[in-house]
Amino acid sequence: MPVDFAALKALHAAAGDRHILDLFSRDPDRATEFSARADGLLFDYSKTNIDAQSREALLGLLDTAGVAEKREAMFSGEKINDTEGRAVLHTALRNLDGGPVTVGGKDVMPGVRDTLARMEAFADRLRRGEATGVSGAPFEDVVNIGIGGSDLGPVMAYEALKPYVDGPRCHFVSNVDGAHVHDVLAGLDPRTTLVIVASKTFTTIETMTNAKTARAWLVETLGEAGVARHFAALSTAGDKTAEFGIAPDLVFGFEDWVGGRYSVWGPIGLSLMLAIGPRTFTDFLRGGQAMDRHFRTAPWAENLPALLALVGIWHNQICGHATRAVLPYEQRLLRLPAYLQQLEMESNGKRVAMDGTDLPFDSGPVVWGEPGTNGQHAFYQLIHQGTRVVPCEFMVGKYGHEPDLAHQHELLVANCLAQSEALMRGRSLVEATEIMETKGFSGAELERQARHRVFPGNRPSTVLAYEKLTPFVLGQIVALYEHRVFVEGVILGINSYDQWGVELGKELALALHPVLAGTADGAGKDGSTLQLVDYLKT
Ligand SMILES: O=P(O)(O)OC[C@H]1O[C@H](O)[C@H](O)[C@@H](O)[C@@H]1O
């Protein structure tokens, strides 16, 4: 049944400009009552304007939208991506000791386990120095060439898990801008470099172009014979990887039921596995699996993915806040905001419902962010005093990985909690006036100066706290956000698993390329495009 936000909007309107602090005064247990835990994670959403009544109504959306049935449909391999006729089974990639999962009557788990075992065997051999390049020298560097989901997952996780890296160094090339591949290859020795071409379709123009450039770079030193030993491929398109010259034993395949932005758990995670080793990679999978279990079994009121989704719906569709900031107080999560941009915006940035009718409300929000504390010295000004409200999602760990620098970690945590507190508390005109009086201001100038120093406060934020950013915890966090996207998508009644919105630009770029190269004319193009072609063609 389609959801109706009218009741929630009425509750929001009735709350008026009620202050979040008043909710705490009224309910001394608010912090615990508006928090939930899962396998060591703590999600605190008490510093939002959601009260018991609005939470009840939000939870009601899950039943109206049939989230529980759709959740089981996803986990059991039904083709819920119905504009592409595909199942959505990234969860099978981390179903390490679970039961069979069938698609079209066939259990996919033997294939998943087989590919994982091949990846592990290769990773072990490479890390022991047994799988070598043509010169016999061990691989020291790995270059993952991919874009979108074939880049963001591995690069995000590699950066996040740097303390666990004890294998080859990984480098990531994604942009079709030749500067990217040039700069990465410039520092590398082809004799000790493994190039991984990561592309689900093996047709993505950026990836195939960069792969050809890397191939030419390698062949220049090692000859054609080097390709079979120095290139691996991660793809669903086995025929195309063979055409490229990649040896079949270095092709790690997967099925179309793994969406690009959900693919880090399988072969697309090979670079990560090479860097941290198969055992540690398994910990990452186990974290994802733990979150799957939590998502499937925890009651909705304690279910982290559901709660994150409902908080998201409340802020975006009900309160009308069009963006949300993801602010990890964890330097190594520096690529997480970019990863979540693809995960959330490519999944839930849709304008029609499943049945093709116009969506009667806004779809997913604009997601953006940076690690704290850097963001504090950049854009937090707008978050605190701008005219628009930006719901903030903070993340922070109890421990860092640098015991010698524990004092810095304390400062980091203090900053995170202080920002969340400051957003809620604000600073009133009275308080600001008092401060400016002590600085010697008076009269009209006192008021003018004080007004610049007012923080409206009452701005919502959530905190996701964890013990330490281990591979397991990273797995939990990534799966948490995946399932949050799923729940929001189901409530909105959209297909979170296609991405038709990326197609038009790709088609037009292909058509413009020959115009820029001077081998086709620009007939039918608009004046602006023609003017820019004229300026930019070489
Ligand atoms: O892995 P590939 O097939 O090369 O696709 C790479 C990326 O490009 C596409 O345009 C999609 O927008 C992404 O969802 C995908 O992750």
Describe the structure.
Belongs to the GPI family. GO terms for molecular function: carbohydrate derivative binding; glucose-6-phosphate isomerase activity; monosaccharide binding. This is Glucose-6-phosphate isomerase. InterPro entries: G6P_Isomerase, G6P_Isomerase_C, Phosphoglucose_isomerase_CS, SIS_dom_sf, SIS_PGI_1, SIS_PGI_2. It catalyses: alpha-D-glucose 6-phosphate = beta-D-fructose 6-phosphate. With 538 residues, the protein is an alpha/beta fold. It folds into four domains: 6-64 and 300-421 and 460-496, Rossmann fold (3-Layer(aba) Sandwich); 90-283, Glucose-6-phosphate isomerase like protein, domain 1 (Rossmann fold), CATH 3.40.50; 426-458, no CATH class; 501-536, Orthogonal Bundle (Phosphoglucose isomerase, C-terminal domain). Helices cover 49% and strands 11% of the residues. It has 22 helices and 13 strands. The chain has helices at 6-15, 20-26, 30-33, 52-65, 67-75, 109-127, 149-160, 178-186, 205-222, 225-230, 238-244, 270-276, 278-297, 304-318, 336-348, 380-385, 406-425, 429-438, 443-452, 471-492, 503-517, 527-536; strands at 35-38, 41-44, 102-103, 106-107, 141-145, 169-173, 193-198, 231-235, 251-253, 323-329, 366-368, 392-397, 461-466. The strands form three sheets. It has a six-stranded mixed β-sheet with strand order 1-2-13-12-10-11, with helices on both faces. Strands 6-5-7-8-9 form a five-stranded parallel β-sheet, sandwiched between helices. A two-stranded antiparallel ribbon has the order 3-4. The longest helix is centred in the last third of the chain and has 22 residues, at 471-492. It is globular and about 80 Å long. The mean pLDDT is 97. The site of 6-O-phosphono-alpha-D-glucopyranose has 14 residues, from helix 7. 6-O-phosphono-alpha-D-glucopyranose (G6P) binds at residues 147-150, 199-201, 204, 207, 260-261, 346, 499, 502.
